[in-house]
Amino acid sequence: MLGQIIYALPFLAEGFALTLWVSFLVVLFSLMAGVILGVGLVYGPVPLRWAVRIFSDTIRGIPILVLIFFVYYGLPAIGLHLPSFWAAVTALTLFKTAQVVEYLRGAVGSIPRGQTEAAMAIGLTFRQQLTSVIFPQAFRRFLPPWINGVTDAVKGSALVSLLGITDLMQAINQVIGRTYEAMPLYILGALIYFAVNYTLSLASRRLERRFTFIRE
Description:
Blueprint: H1 2-43, H2 46-60, H3 64-74, H4 84-109, H5 113-121, H6 126-156, H7 168-179, H8 182-210
């Protein structure tokens, strides 16, 4: 049994690398899109705010699995065909983007209005207000929940195996199909996911301690 698992380790390593790649792309794309939409939600005109709010509430209300199947199986109905890899990345990115929007909204909303008024009083432009006053303060409130959201992205990436993508979970299932050693391999997979997410959780807690808010 141990020999079979050791023999399968290179295959599992390839699957794990793909899991990390999917997670990285999802985190990167969702961060960029979420920040842009989050700024639109807080500071944009009313129609844009409503559009972002509808997007965020709708996407967060849909299970990730349903979203993945919709992107992969549903979009071809309107002529948009995505390879399984990019369909999975797109679905996970949509879900994480909606969460990032809420992280940013909460972080920016926690900044006292007096900070913005003071920035306006000294003649700062809107961009200068964001880059020099609002975002530096909001960053410390945004970062810990966002890192916790990164762990969700890693865990959610396991669902891409349902589209036949050979990530860590799919690699484990394929090895089980050849070795019939289910329990040890699932335990190994759980330990790998735990190691990654626990490391991220430790980083989040350290950041929370570093950016501890002054209690009023």
